[in-house]
TrEMBL record:
The keyword Cytoplasm applies. GO terms for biological process: proteasome-mediated ubiquitin-dependent protein catabolic process. Residues 1038-1052 have a biased composition (Gly residues). InterPro entries: ARM-like (IPR011989), ARM-type_fold (IPR016024), Armadillo (IPR000225), ARMC8/Vid28 (IPR038739). Keywords: Cytoplasm, Nucleus, Repeat. Its main location: cytoplasm. Residues 63-84, 496-525, 1019-1090 are annotated as: Disordered. The keyword Kinase does not apply. This is ARM repeat-containing protein. One of its GO terms (cellular component) is nucleus. It is found in: Cytoplasm; Nucleus. Residues 1053-1065, 1080-1090 have a biased composition (Low complexity).
């Protein structure tokens, strides 16, 4: 097409002479523009969109009315087939739909005029299979999929600044698609029970459309209410029933719901779109009737588990076996543990000598998981990928809501041997730089497209599988996946060349005036967006970064390995946002692809880069060497002011680790203005940004100068802190404690506020010892195990109760608001805790804090976090003051300590996190000057509320109690002995001495030692010596007599010492991050990165 004249077909469409001529014109236009973007642009500029809209709308109205009349006629059975015969009107609409699909293939530049011309509305209005011929419905669904693919190529500058990641075109398209009539039509398509190949194709295209577009919670809810998830589960069960019949040796009995196996990945991906980031949807899928009927069992709670035929589909895993075992030779470990050096425990198996065959078999896996594993192992390509993706999502759900699944304990081994090797094999085979790719080059266009899809998606599957799971991380490292991920990351920065050229015209573009007879909005191209190659590069970059972040999130040696293989340079490049100059590109000017590849990154890549930076910054050695060498501080700080709130949150989580006291980048970040920016973000409307910013300020406030601390407090505002501690506006106040007093759907008292592990509190922690009494916690994780052991299969009533419990936890706005409020209060308390931490314990910060808040208001705020529900803030007539308790009454209070600890009314107390954080503030106050210790003891009501906490079932509450008594009995110098003796006498009268004695027999070593020291100090002050305590004092009073130590619990590591030496260990080992205590001699809550 050498000249920019109007194509003849457009003349007929603009001035139609007959339906037959229009059909011929559309067919010619379709043949002209297919695969030719320049001709598509010419057709749009000459106004092809409006005639297309008119044809689609007019013919849809005619066809719909005719078919509705036929379906409503009493003789519909006879006339239905005749009414849906293919005629000229159907052919006209069919050809128009194909032309729209061809235009959509041109990219986002052509979607803008299609939306301006309102082409999408008549397409989605006629999706009902009862009103639309099958051939036309297939074409319409295929066109909608093409439009959904095109909007993903829109430029990153269209991302919303303060909301969900949605571009202008995609938000418009999804808004039209996710209307109730359209969703009901999709449900009608999926509900078809026929063995027609055309119907199967319709179901597949509808499932693809859902998988591509269903991302927001509102969209999922709309589809869920229409029953689409249950329909997809029915289709999946119908396909799986083929394998079930084969296992039972039954004759083949095809079901009307059954689809060909080639459509299985489409169904699985649509289900995965529901399940992703929604535990309730995952539970709805697992407990749906078709899934339970096929994969469940008839056993009720309390019955012994029996083997099912599904277990024949996967190999039997064994913990210990003989080398001569024939079974071991038949089923090797698939290479996932080919080198066992990095997997602790497995490297000793060869040393085990057994005289006879010793086999310990694992608990059989869930039947649904077994079948998905079988699908992944039997198939390749998209089918394998989709099965592994759904397995990963269901595993995430199972980790959070185990619901007594007995296979949970051995699931990691199944995934290590059976799934991780398959995922890594997909990554290796899809990697363009691998030997496999070079051996199989060149590939067909279809094979190349599938390979690109696998390359972009398989690292995401790996990230979902190995996140927070050391076993699976080690299995992946043994398969040498880290180097492959870095190769993919490096390849994503390679320049991409395109051959796009502007359409030639005999006249300059400046002289081309728009035709006044043509509708301008529908004849003007939009922004060209990115080419498919650049979008693919961004997706590969994002997935590789997320996989690296998941691999390095828990183990320090893996963080070092990521740095050693050269990933730091590409991570730094991924932190650069997309350049603002690309906003000024004209629609007709194609992007310079080679420049775009290194011009910057869209929002998803920036978020992924922040995540991997956060994972790496958890290592002290990496933080002090590689990250500072690569200059990671300034790019991370720059992202704090990015217009997208998701990037701000991710960058704040990175800054939280970079401003640690052990970080050499702290000064640089503070000089750049981080303090002011973080304080501003604490007032953001977005909760996650407020929470992360306050967490970062908590870290920043520790170990800085007095002037900077005061500036931080003034910038944040005492009023804001008081408001946060009292409960943010519109949220629950802690004056009414929130704990285990909330019943779930089954009527159980569940601590909903402690139900979910804080996603930000993901520091490395030491494994709990078997004797640790934290198993007595009131968290929902323990409440979920109230049924009989091994009760995998439950009744319909229990399923409904469990679904309601999961739904409330995820969707109940009141509970989520209260939970968020508790999290903010915890961070505010920790901020105050670090604010009062001083190098020389001068008490200056304590004085400033008390002056800023006011003595009465400050202690009332703390008391509100310790007293149980219904307790009075001031002593009442029937409630004696603490100073009136006689010394002889104290032992009676502690006569039943064990009963109090196990069966006390702890449900009426505030959440444990708030209690622990408040107690550590009291520990800090007691670590100040002697006047501060006397001031604390004078707070009689506060001391009364602290006393019962010495018998709390949680270690992280009892430990600060022990430190609190220890610090209150500390003797500053010989001149402080009279005042210290008074304090010791008051503590004895209050009952703290007897409480400390009983803590001296605690199961936790740290608590025992702190309590023993406190009892010894009190005994010396009161003249009892070693006779009344039963302990020997290791030292006298003074600066050399204190006991240094550390203690921590929960997500916030805390360390306190009664000694005056408060310097951090100068030789911190990186392995410190795997231990929940820091080598600090003052109580801080930021000893570990997040």
């Amino acid at each position: 097409m050498g000249r920019s004249s109007m194509p003849p077909a457009l003349v007929e469409l603009a001035n139609p002479t007959s339906p037959e001529a229009q059909v011929a014109a559309l067919r010619n236009l379709k043949n002209e523009i297919v695969g030719h973007d320049q001709r598509k642009e010419l057709a749009v500029r000459h106004g092809v969109v409006k005639p297309l809209t008119g044809i689609l709308r007019t013919e849809a109205r005619k066809g719909g009315k005719r078919r509705r009349w036929a379906n409503g006629n009493s003789s519909a059975a006879r006339e239905g087939e005749r009414a849906t015969e293919w005629g000229t009107e159907e052919e006209l609409r069919f050809q128009a739909t194909l032309v729209v699909g061809s235009l959509a293939n041109g990219g986002p530049a052509f979607i803008a005029p299609l939306l301006a011309g309102d082409v999408l509305s008549p397409l989605v209005e006629t999706l009902s299979p009862s009103e639309v011929p099958s051939k036309l419905l297939v074409a319409t669904l295929r066109t909608l999929n093409q439009i959904a693919d095109a909007v993903t190529q829109e430029g990153p500058w269209k991302d919303a600044a303060d909301g969900p990641l949605r571009s202008t075109l995609s938000s418009t398209v999804y808004g039209i698609m996710y209307a109730r009539p359209v969703v009901e039509s999709l449900a009608e398509i999926l509900a078809q029970e026929t063995r027609s190949a055309t119907a199967h194709q319709q179901i597949s295209l509808a499932a693809k459309l859902i998988a591509k577009t269903c991302q927001e919670e509102s969209q999922k809810k709309l589809l869920l209410d229409a029953g689409i998830l249950d329909l997809l589960a029915t289709k999946l069960a119908a396909i799986a029933s083929v394998d079930a019949q084969a296992l039972r040796m039954e004759p083949r009995q095809p079901s009307r719901e059954e689809l060909p196996a080639m459509y299985l990945p489409d169904i699985i991906e649509a289900i995965a779109a529901f399940v992703e980031r929604s535990n309730y949807n995952a539970a709805r899928f697992i407990y749906s009737q078709p899934i339970q009927q096929l994969f469940g069992a008839s056993k009720e709670d309390g019955y012994a588990y029996q083997a099912t035929p599904w277990e024949k589909l996967t190999p039997r895993l064994q913990t210990i076996q003989n080398k001569s075992d024939a079974y071991a030779k038949s089923w090797p470990a698939l290479g996932s543990f080919s080198t066992l050096g990095t997997v602790e425990g497995y490297n000793r198996l060869d040393a085990l000598q057994t005289t006879s065959r010793t086999v310990i078999t694992d608990e059989p896996e869930n039947a649904l998981f077994i079948w998905l594993m079988f699908v992944a192992r039997r198939n390749e390509g998209r089918t394998r990928l989709s099965a592994c993706w759904l397995l990963a999502l269901l595993k995430i759900f199972g980790d959070k809501w185990p619901l007594n699944d007995p296979s949970k304990t051995t699931r990691d081994r199944h995934f290590s041997y059976l799934i991780i090797p398959l995922v890594i094999k997909m990554i290796d085979e899809a990697n363009e730089t691998s030997d496999y790719a070079r051996r199989n080059a060149p590939m067909t266009p279809q094979a190349r497209e599938e390979c690109r899809f696998l390359l972009a998606r398989s690292p995401l599957v790996l990230a979902a599988l190995v996140g927070n799971n050391k076993t699976l991380q080690n299995a992946a490292v043994d398969a040498r996946v880290l180097l492959t991920l870095v190769q993919i990351l490096k390849k994503s920065f390679d320049p991409v060349t395109t051959s796009s050229k502007p359409l030639w015209s005999p006249r300059p573009a400046s002289n081309n005036r728009p035709d006044p007879t043509v509708d301008q909005p529908s004849s003007t191209l939009g922004s060209p967006g990115f080419s498919a190659e650049i979008i693919h590069g961004f997706r590969c970059r994002e997935s590789a970064l997320l996989a690296l972040a998941a691999m390095a999130d828990t183990q320090d040696h893996l963080r070092k390995l990521v740095i050693e293989i050269g990933a730091a340079t590409y991570i730094l490049d991924s932190l650069v946002p997309y350049s603002e100059q690309t906003k000024d590109l004209s629609p007709s000017t194609p992007h310079d692809a080679s420049a775009s590849s290194r011009m910057g990154n869209p929002v998803p890549v920036l978020v992924a880069a922040c995540k991997v930076t956060r994972s790496l910054s958890r290592s002290v050695s990496v933080l002090r060497t590689s990250l500072i060498d690569h200059g990671i501080a300034q790019p991370s700080f720059d992202l704090l002011t990015h217009p997208n709130v998701r990037v701000q949150i991710a960058a704040t989580e990175v800054i939280t680790n970079l401003v640690l006291e052990v970080s050499p980048m702290r000064t640089e970040i503070m000089e750049a203005g981080a303090l002011k920016t973080l304080c501003e973000h604490c007032r953001s409307a977005n909760f996650d940004l407020r929470f992360s910013s306050l967490w970062a300020l908590k870290h920043l406030c520790l170990g800085i100068s007095t002037t900077t601390k005061i500036q931080c407090l003034e910038e944040l505002g005492v009023g804001w802190l008081v408001q946060t501690l009292n409960g943010e506006p519109g949220k629950g106040s802690t004056s009414t404690p929130l704990g285990m007093g909330t019943p779930n759907a089954a009527g159980e008292q569940v601590d909903i506020l402690n139900a979910v592990d804080d996603p930000h509190m993901d520091v490395d922690e030491e494994a709990s010892s078997p004797d640790d009494e934290d198993t007595m916690t009131d968290s929902i994780a323990s409440m979920r195990r109230h049924q009989h052991h091994g009760s995998r299969y439950t009744s319909a009533t229990n399923i409904r109760d469990r679904l309601q419990q999961i739904k409330n936890d995820e969707q109940d706005q009141r509970l989520n608001s209260e939970r968020d409020d508790i999290r903010m209060q915890e961070q505010a308390l920790d901020f105050l805790r670090n604010f009062t931490a001083e190098e020389k314990a001068s008490g200056e910060m304590i004085d400033h804090l008390l002056k800023s808040f006011g003595h009465s208001r400050f202690f009332e705020l703390l008391d509100a976090k310790l007293r149980p529900k219904g307790a009075s803030a001031i002593p009442g007539p029937s409630q004696p003051r603490a100073t009136g308790i006689r010394a002889g009454d104290a032992p009676n209070y502690w006569s039943n300590l064990n009963t109090t600890r196990e069966g006390g009314n702890w449900a009426s107390y505030p959440p444990t996190e708030l209690i622990a954080s408040t107690l550590w503030i009291l520990v800090h106050l007691a670590n100040g000057r002697p006047q501060h210790r006397s001031l604390l003891i004078s707070q009689s009501q506060l001391m009364q509320h602290v006393l019962p906490l010495l018998s709390h079932p949680r270690r992280d509450v009892r430990l600060p109690c022990a430190w609190f008594i220890n610090n209150l009995t500390w003797v500053e110098d010989h001149g402080d002995e009279p005042a210290s003796r008074e304090r010791a006498q008051s503590l004895r009268q209050l009952g703290f001495e007897e409480g400390a004695r009983l803590l001296g027999r605690d199961t936790d070593l740290d608590i025992r030692e702190r309590a023993k020291t406190a009892v010894e100090q009190m005994g010396k002050l009161l003249g009892d010596g070693g006779r009344s305590t039963g302990y020997q004092s290791p030292a006298g009073f003074g600066e050399q007599g204190g006991a240094g130590g550390a203690g921590g619990g929960g997500g916030n590591t805390s360390s306190v010492s009664t000694s005056r030496n408060s310097n951090l260990d100068s030789d911190l080992d990186s392995d410190l991050l795997d231990y929940p205590c820091a080598a600090s001699s003052r109580p801080s809550s930021s000893s570990l990165p997040t």
